[in-house]
TrEMBL record:
It comes from Noccaea caerulescens. The keyword Repeat applies. Keywords: Leucine-rich repeat, Repeat. It comes from the Eukaryota. It holds the Pfam family C-JID. This is Inactive disease resistance protein RPS4. The keyword Nucleotide-binding does not apply. Residues 491-513 are annotated as: Disordered. Residues 341-482 form the C-JID domain.
Length: 550
């Protein structure tokens, strides 16, 4: 039965004379703005799905709903007059309950031990009952923007099936309960906009959140938490952690060693961040996943920290390239590792560097083992405000080959791929660096050297605002097997200086160190058809299941 946007106040009286409604399995009365009475549905014993979303003046549910023993899905989203559910209501088959945006809803009680998905986001609850530990099948608990929530039950760790806990925007919640036992299934923990006054994620308190109780965690969001000045050193034990969001943690001063399989780190606007651990993370030789490390508006980031970030990105990209070359055949470009941070110079280890947005390198024939390439753009953001999710820094490469005509290849050096809630700004000039690889293509002739090469960069977002951004400098280099060890963060000061993101030697711009140009003919033999390269998903939370989107 589908009656969305109807003007019905009460369901028809004709059903009162029926003993049951045996065929009724699904009722949709969403956005029926006049609906006040559902009692006629009490005989729908076999009803499985009931959608009452947007019924704004519906202020109560009938106790006779207990007869709906087969109901598995109940959607009350946006029922703003609803204050509670009937105390006697027990829906033993219910698996999904949605109370999102029920802004008057204050009291939640146990209604089904079989609940798997519970959405209480945007409600007026102040706490959860201890009986919630009975929800042993609960997979998702969404408490986003529960601005009156002041505490969580101490038994929270007993929810052994819980995979996703969303506490974003719970502005009055200042303490997370102690985790006394392992939560072996918890994969997503979101605290963005929730200020944990006790500093649960720091080593400096008596009872921090025990990271070794959250070993399956894949996504952790702590953005907007001003009380965090450091992270627990035990965070490195989270071998499954892929996504760490630290945006706007304004008092975060340093980063400890990160988990080995981290794919996405966003430290945008961590205004106090100065140092990172060396090495930034342990490297896993067999991993084959791309990574993004974002440090935009981290204006206090020290020179040594920038070097360590670049060093880690290079070593990781080389490991990934090696793995791809070992296990795959055919030509396929991969976005491997990308990073950005405040800065004004192309690192000196880029073999080809120049001012402006165009680079025309001299590429020498060689057939040594190269496993990837590195690209760099220094971008000025003077007075620029991010307008939409189409921001990107693009790179176009054109090669005139001896045996073929001109070929053009497009790269995306950075983008912004999430919905923008407010205009964001980038305060200063930033360095964008990305590494990519290729898989060796069989059957190519040796000695195929291009007569000419041109690499150009541009900033675009689809609006005239992008004209305020300028590519000031750019760089191009090869990542070769012979680089093994030369980028090691634990190598001596000589190596660290070679990683420098700031160069005082202007004479080096545009010059080529011929002795270090290795394997370039191999690269150019492979660059024979178009491909896209996305340096990193700028401010992105993409790449995960839809339940990750917040």
């Amino acid at each position: 039965l589908r009656l969305p946007y109807s003007k019905i106040k009460r369901l028809w009286d004709a059903v009162k004379d029926l003993k049951e409604l045996p065929q009724l399995k699904w009722v949709d009365l969403s956005y029926s703005g006049a609906l006040i009475d559902l009692s006629a549905l009490s005989k729908a014993f076999y009803l499985r799905r009931l959608n009452l979303e947007g019924c704004k003046i519906l202020d109560k549910l009938p106790e006779e709903m207990n007869n709906m023993t087969g109901l598995v899905f109940l959607n009350l989203r946006g029922c703003v007059m609803l204050t509670s559910l009937p105390k006697s209501l027990k829906l033993k088959s219910l698996k999904t309950l949605i109370l999102s945006g029920c802004s008057s809803f204050k009291n939640f009680e146990l209604i089904s031990k079989n609940l798997e998905f519970l959405h209480l986001d945007g409600t007026a609850i102040t706490n959860l009952p201890e009986t919630i530990q009975s929800f042993q099948k609960l997979v998702l608990l969404n408490l986003k923007n529960c601005i009156t929530l002041v505490s969580l039950p101490d038994c929270l760790y007993k929810l052994k099936s819980l995979e996703e806990l969303i506490l974003s925007g719970c502005s009055k919640l200042d303490k997370f309960p102690e985790i006394k036992e392992k939560m072996e299934n918890l994969q997503i923990l979101l605290f963005d906009g929730t200020v944990l006054q006790c500093g649960d994620f720091s080593d400096q308190i008596v009872k921090p959140i025990r990271m070794n109780s959250l070993l399956m965690l894949r996504r952790l969001c702590l953005s907007g938490n001003d009380t965090i000045d450091s992270l627990q050193s035990s965070i490195t034990q989270l071998n499954h952690l892929k996504w760490l969001d630290l945006r706007y943690c304004k008092n975060l001063k340093s980063l400890v060693k990160l988990p080995p399989n981290l794919q996405y780190l966003n430290a945008h606007a961590c205004a106090s961040l100065k140092t990172v651990e060396s090495p930034l993370a342990f490297l896993m030789p067999t991993e084959q996943v791309s990574s993004s490390f974002i440090f935009t508006n981290c204006e206090k980031l020290e020179h040594s920290a920038k070097n360590e970030i670049i060093c880690y990105a290079h070593n990781k990209s080389r490991l990934l390239s090696d793995a791809l070359n070992r296990h795959n055949k055919g030509l396929a470009f991969e976005n491997l590792v990308a990073t950005c941070f405040p800065g004004s110079e192309v690192p000196v280890w880029f073999n080809h560097r120049d001012s402006g947005a165009v680079l025309e390198p001299q590429l020498l024939p060689s057939d040594n083992g190269c496993v990837g390439i590195a690209l760099c753009a220094v971008v000025s953001f003077q007075d620029y405000k991010i307008q939409n999710n189409n921001f990107m820094v693009k790179c176009t490469c054109e090669f005139d080959n001896v045996e073929t005509s001109s070929s053009i290849f497009n790269f995306h050096i950075g983008d912004l791929s999430v919905k923008i809630d407010k205009q964001r700004t980038i305060k200063s000039t930033h360095v964008f660096i990305g590494f990519t690889s290729w898989w060796q293509e069989l059957g190519l002739k040796k000695g195929c050297v291009p007569a000419k090469a041109s690499i150009s960069f541009e900033v675009t977002d689809g609006t005239p605002e992008a004209a305020k951004c300028k590519v000031l400098k750019c760089g191009f280099s090869l990542v070769c097997e012979s680089d093994n060890g030369s980028w090691d963060a634990n190598a001596g000061a000589g190596h660290a200086s070679s990683m420098s993101s700031e160069s005082d030697d202007d004479s080096s711009k545009g010059n080529v160190d011929k002795a270090s140009v290795v394997g370039e003919s191999r690269l150019l033999r492979l660059l024979r058809r178009g491909w896209d390269f996305i340096l990193f998903p700028f401010f992105s939370s993409s790449g995960y299941a839809s339940t990750f989107n917040t």
